[in-house]
Amino acid sequence: MNETVLLIAIPLNFINFLLFGYDKSQAKIGGWRIPEKVLLGLSLCGGGVGGLAGMMTFRHKTHKNYFWAAEIVGIAVLLYLLFR
């Protein structure tokens, strides 16, 4: 079961990380942005590690407390699924 969770979680976190970077680059140039609900949704569904890494790497959405909360909840969901 843990292998299945990892097979889903690794790409999910990688995609979430990339989306944070893309959204930051689009924010700089005034282009099309990723909706916050997409970033939050991916984080809450177990992509919190990638979201947190994206926040820190790209210095994006770090002033919004609800993103910090979503990353923590997403990491907790992932840990629960891995160690239940």
How would you describe what is shown here?
This protein is mostly helical. The relative contact order is 0.19. The chain is elongated. 83% of the residues lie in helices and 0% in strands. It has one domain. It is built from 3 helices and no strands.
Number of helices: 3
Query: What is the average per-residue confidence, as pLDDT, rounded to a whole number?
Result: 95
* Helical fraction: over 70%
Evaluate the radius of gyration: 13 Å
Multimer state: single chain
**Domain module count:** 1
Low-pLDDT windows of residues = none
Instruction: Give the overall shape.
Output: elongated
Distance between the termini: 10 Å
Order of helices and strands: HHH
Give the number of DSSP strands: 0
Question: What keyword list fits this structure?
Answer:
84 residues, 3 helices, single chain
